[in-house]
């Protein structure tokens, strides 16, 4: 691997300084200077998980150091219109990590390896390259030090730089904050090709700009993530609700409890009151790999077409194992779920965090991992969520989306408003994630229909004047972006001018155009 790294490094930065290797400033001169007989096949950088956008870059490069990236960005800045996109693991769904005719950086190749950092006292953190997968961070931290970060995404095949450019949300966020709120320090290569180390106390404007900044202000080459002792075990619980009112009432109560009385994880999803639907119906409720299926006799006769499942987790260590039953019972007791429709399993912490890996395996087998994914993620104020349930879950989506429909509350006070990411105004807002998996046989019409349905849902939220934001947004026009960021748009534009004045970075977000 060291040999390969050296080879890659020589190719990307040949014979001294590639900046002086370019014979002129035309785009072709610049590309030739990078042309490092090198060139990795560009095709993989032309698509993403969404499977709906295809844009060929001119070069797909494998930087191994932050300095490589800085040089590529400085070279691009000399050209008339070359852009640079960091590609994490390409799990965007709308071409956000692409650069048509530009340069895509394969962040998965970036070093140096993950490293433990002692921060004084008992505090520790981990320094990770921007292209590390969260699964790698988890395995490394737990295996080598029995420690782990506190905030996750559901699926860990995403890169640190990719989720920190968006938010990074899962069931821990109501209590610990999203991933962007759990970063001690970043190293960033700005659009001027400068390497900067920043934190909340040093170059803080760049630090907060980059967090949730959609890759607009710099390439995150390293992140320092605080660690805590990793829990050993997790009591993983799912309970079913007949009405949205009871579901949302209990979920909001749970996420506003004091830490001493709170679960460690709160999520949930809507599902179809339907035996026959294998991807959105009853069968999606029981925790995988436990005995005991879904007993339909327990569903109250007056239930509607949509039911709700609250997903909870309690961390514990082996020495607390004899108390976990009682703890869970006491915490579940006040909840208004349907008695008899509860499911629980005890799994290791790592197994719990890697749980969506199983979904990936199943989707790969079914062929739906490789088909298009017209996903829609929304953040919707608690004051609007009951109306959303009535109009969207119960009407527009009454037949499901061919995959999970997550809906669970988060707390605004756990997000630092200095970060770039846009969230609703109210203290409690919901993540709604419509994770559509299109069957291989469904064809283009099904994809178009799903995209149109997403538009209809967003239009509905707008027409009702909801306090909401699209999470991992995809807009085409400046007006839409200005609307998305609201009163923070002026700051977003000013930060762009400050850190990437020629608009070289992350063109696939279609927010700014490359200045000539
Ligand atoms: P990419 O798609 O490669 O990049 C995303 C954007 O970030 C692009 O604009 C890119 O240029 C930019 N970028 C990438 N790396 C860097 C970097 N180092 N520095 C600066 N900019 C960079 N999100 C959640 O919050 N919670 C979830 O539970 C969750 N689950 C998911 C499950 C699946 C199966 C999928 C496909 C997505 C999920 N997401 C989730 C969404 C995910 O957070 C985003 O799609 C994220 O952008 C993907 O990360 P990536 O590493 O593949 O980034």
UniProtKB/TrEMBL annotation:
Single GO molecular-function term?
cytokinin dehydrogenase activity
Q: What biological process terms from GO does the record include?
A: cytokinin metabolic process
- Keywords on record: FAD, Flavoprotein, Oxidoreductase
Q: Which residues form the FAD-binding PCMH-type domain?
A: 53-230
Q: Which cofactor does it need?
A: FAD
Gene3D superfamilies in alphabetical order: 3.30.465.10, FAD-linked oxidases, C-terminal domain, Uridine Diphospho-n-acetylenolpyruvylglucosamine Reductase, domain 2
Please provide an example of a Pfam family that matches this protein in its UniProt record: Cytokin-bind
Q: Which InterPro entries match?
A: Cytok_DH_C_sf, Cytokinin_DH_FAD/cytokin-bd, FAD-bd_PCMH, FAD-bd_PCMH-like_sf, FAD-bd_PCMH_sub1, FAD-bd_PCMH_sub2, FAD-linked_Oxase-like_C, FAD-linked_Oxidoreductases_BP
Q: Which EC numbers does the record give?
A: 1.5.99.12
Q: Which family does it belong to?
A: Belongs to the oxygen-dependent FAD-linked oxidoreductase family.
Q: Which PANTHER family match?
A: CYTOKININ DEHYDROGENASE 7, GULONOLACTONE OXIDASE
Protein name per UniProt: cytokinin dehydrogenase
* Lineage summary: Eukaryota, Viridiplantae, Streptophyta, Embryophyta, Tracheophyta
